[in-house]
């Protein structure tokens, strides 16, 4: 182990060899935190400070957990294979299965994904006959998720509800939770919330886990929410050997419940903790680090630190000032192709604030014949044909999973319309039965058409046969048998359209995935496979060995690195997003997101913004405030040849007459930004430019003739 420690710098060594008690490792971007975590686990095992099975390491992706475990095994041998390295959700799912009876669940509970949750909440909204516009499924689910992240159940939320909207959401929360429990199902947030509830209610379970996990290590601590914070505090309450690694400057998930205070207040929660700062960067050039720091240092809520590197100063950061987003995409692709002689395609990444920005970039990449891959597109396990087959596996694992049975009936049944489903669900609800139990009972089915009854009988026979054989065959054989009985693969292949053949290929890939899982999993059970599928993330599915340019949102890029990084769409209202300007906390999170984007770059960093945009009707942009926070000497501005205005269009727009009645003080409404007031005018006629302050405090410069404004006062 002594030889391994020589590979580390002094602060890294100090973190790895820390003895007993709480430890806070403030690890800046590219400072080798993964190595420190891995070596610390190896050190604890090699020095016999604890047994491998008494270590719990928590990361935020399955991929990171798997890679870390592999590295530890390589460092100290197979004796370390018993360590627990997983995500929060996987850890909770595993132990909830062992103790589900304490919470009124069976160990075969389903984990509902985003689509399942949407279907469930939409059913609740429909049942109460509420207006979809005001109570959209996504809005209500966000409210419920926010509650669960802070461990608030529906009763507590209802107690604190102030108005009709909140009280109605509380009632929908109750309906949603009731349906989950009836289906023996949990959503992602339940895994955390119910695990905390289990530990708080069952002292024997808590003591058992506290005795088992003598050392707990948490990665990306700045991204933990309140439920995760409480969970970690409970588990480490006895040994107090808690090591957390994180960087407050990279806290970018506040919108989904992450609480920055968890890392900022760690020293208050654990007054005797040791604090170690990792500030040497091994990834980026000095110029890139200077630029990133010059932006993030403007945040008030942060711990003081400044990254440095022994790497070269590197090239200046290129700032591309382009005409519009279409030219931006073309220029970025041109730059990539110019640099290709020095780099492989996989060395490039294009980062953007929102998924909607990828469309024009994709078009330019396709037109130029440049290979690319999108991280965060439609996930493999979210494709229709895959979910259709997974529905069989889910209902076999959990016969109470009504959503899965409903999917099977809709996909493989004939003559079963919405009215039939409504009758089924109403009958099941009145009798306290699952849909499967309702079908078996047969009373309501007798009212269906002959065609529908035959379909239901056929599907019931499939399920009966599969249920009888599932414990005697492998998971791979079970999946193959489902495909044989449904003839799904054969029918898609027989269609011989491009789409059907692609879907058939996806089903074959599912068979491969099941086989791979069976070969590598310690316990290749049906429940464990479904659990892994439910908890997989975008990055877990990303193939970084593929020789292609990567496209992804800035959030998806966290933890990754690329030789050449392009950050596009750096305009006010887009990055930072206009809605983030409503509070200092949200604006600071946007600034941290910019910092994360910059620090993904190893050698070259390109920043770009467009003077005009067509996203919300053509209008003039202001460049992102974050660009103004970078010292000029670090930037090299490039202005590709600008497009020329179409004179005929200019004249036509100028003659519209709107310009002549717009005055300083005019109250206007914009189709995207809403209500605002004109505070200054510049130019005249077709060149009239307006500065408008909108109600949310956002200032925009607009070219009047393209702004599509309506005067309201």
- Spatial strand arrangement across the major sheet: 11-12-10-13-14-9-17
Q: What would you call the shape?
A: globular
Please indicate the count of domains: 5
| Strand percentage | 5-15%
Distance from N terminus to C terminus (CA atoms, Å) equals: 75 Å
Q: How many runs of DSSP E, i.e. beta strands?
A: 22
Q: Residue share in helices?
A: 40-55%
CATH architecture verdict of the largest domain: 3-Layer(aba) Sandwich
Report the CATH topology name of the largest domain. Rossmann fold
Provide a descriptive summary of the structure in words.
The chain is α/β, with parallel strands linked by helices. It has five domains: 185 residues, Rossmann fold; 74 residues, Arc Repressor Mutant, subunit A (Orthogonal Bundle), CATH 1.10.10.160; 191 residues, P-loop containing nucleotide triphosphate hydrolases (Rossmann fold, 3-Layer(aba) Sandwich); 156 residues, Orthogonal Bundle (PCRA, domain 4), CATH 1.10.486.10; 50 residues, Thrombin, subunit H (Beta Barrel). The protein contains 31 helices and 22 strands. The strands form five sheets. The chain has a seven-stranded parallel β-sheet. A hairpin with a 3-residue loop joins β18 and β19. α15 runs antiparallel to α28. The radius of gyration is 28 Å and the shape is globular. About 2% of the residues have low confidence.
């Amino acid at each position: 182990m002594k030889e391994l420690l020589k590979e580390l710098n002094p602060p890294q060594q100090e973190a790895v060899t820390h003895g007993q008690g709480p430890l806070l490792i403030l690890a800046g971007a590219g400072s080798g935190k993964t190595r420190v975590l891995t070596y610390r686990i190896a050190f604890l095992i090699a020095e016999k400070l604890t047994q491998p099975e008494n270590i719990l390491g928590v990361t935020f992706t399955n991929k990171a957990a798997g890679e870390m475990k592999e590295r530890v095994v390589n460092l100290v041998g197979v004796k370390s294979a018993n360590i627990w390295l997983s995500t929060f959700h996987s850890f909770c799912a595993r132990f909830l299965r062992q103790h589900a009876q304490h919470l009124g669940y069976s160990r075969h509970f389903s984990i509902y994904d985003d689509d399942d949750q949407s279907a469930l909440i939409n059913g609740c909204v429909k049942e109460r006959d509420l207006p979809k516009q005001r109570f959209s499924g996504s809005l209500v689910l966000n409210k419920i998720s926010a509650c669960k992240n802070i461990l608030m159940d529906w009763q507590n939320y209802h107690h604190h509800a102030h108005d009709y909207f909140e009280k109605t959401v509380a009632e929908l929360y109750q309906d949603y939770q009731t349906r989950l429990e009836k289906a023996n199902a949990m959503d992602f947030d339940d895994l955390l919330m119910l695990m905390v509830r289990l530990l708080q209610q069952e002292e024997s379970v808590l003591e058992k886990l506290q005795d088992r996990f003598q050392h707990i290590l948490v990665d990306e601590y700045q991204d933990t929410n309140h439920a995760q914070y409480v969970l970690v505090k409970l588990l480490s309450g006895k040994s107090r050997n808690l090591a957390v690694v994180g960087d407050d400057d990279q806290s970018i998930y506040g919108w989904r419940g992450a609480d920055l205070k968890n890392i900022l207040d760690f020293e208050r929660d654990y007054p005797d903790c040791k604090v170690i700062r990792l500030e040497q960067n091994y990834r980026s050039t000095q110029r890139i680090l200077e630029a990133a720091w010059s932006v993030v240092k403007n945040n008030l809520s942060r711990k003081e630190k400044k990254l440095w590197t022994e790497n070269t100063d590197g090239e200046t950061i290129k700032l591309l000032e382009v005409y519009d987003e279409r030219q931006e995409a073309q220029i970025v692709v041109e730059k990539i192709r110019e640099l290709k002689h020095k780099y492989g395609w996989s060395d490039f990444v294009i980062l953007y604030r929102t998924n909607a920005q990828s469309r024009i970039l994709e078009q330019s990449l396709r037109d130029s014949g440049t290979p690319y891959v999108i991280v965060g597109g439609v996930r493999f396990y979210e494709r229709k044909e895959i979910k259709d087959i997974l529905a069989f596996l889910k209902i076999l694992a959990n016969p109470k999973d009504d959503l899965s049975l409903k999917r099977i009936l809709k996909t493989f049944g004939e003559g079963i319309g919405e009215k039939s489903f409504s009758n089924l669900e109403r009958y099941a609800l009145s009798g306290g039965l699952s849909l499967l139990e309702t079908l078996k009972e047969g009373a309501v089915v007798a009212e269906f058409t002959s065609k529908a009854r035959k379909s239901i009988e056929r599907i019931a026979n499939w399920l009966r046969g599969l249920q009888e054989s599932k414990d005697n065959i492998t998971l791979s054989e079970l999946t193959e048998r489902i495909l044989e009985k449904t003839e799904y693969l054969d029918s898609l292949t027989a269609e011989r359209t491009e789409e059907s053949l692609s879907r058939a290929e996806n089903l074959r890939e599912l068979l491969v995935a099941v086989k791979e899982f069976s070969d590598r999993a310690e316990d290749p059970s049906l429940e464990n496979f479904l659990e892994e599928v439910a908890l997989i993330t975008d990055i877990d599915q990303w193939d970084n060995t593929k020789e292609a340019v990567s496209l992804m949102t800035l959030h998806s890029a966290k933890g990754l690195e690329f030789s050449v990084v392009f950050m596009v769409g750096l305009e006010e209202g887009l990055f930072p997003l206009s809605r983030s300007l409503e509070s200092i906390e949200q604006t600071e999170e946007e600034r941290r997101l910019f910092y994360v984007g910059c620090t993904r770059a190893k050698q070259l960093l390109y920043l770009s913004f467009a003077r005009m945009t067509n996203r919300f009707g053509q209008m003039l942009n202001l460049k992102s405030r974050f660009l103004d926070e970078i010292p000029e000497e670090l930037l090299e501005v490039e202005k590709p040849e600008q497009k020329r205005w179409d004179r005929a269009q200019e004249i036509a727009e100028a003659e519209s007459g709107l310009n002549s009645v717009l005055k300083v003080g005019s109250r206007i409404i914009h189709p995207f930004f809403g209500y605002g007031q004109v505070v200054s005018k510049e130019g005249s006629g077709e060149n009239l430019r307006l500065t408008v302050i909108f109600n949310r405090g956002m200032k925009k410069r607009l070219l009047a003739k393209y702004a599509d404004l309506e005067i309201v006062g």
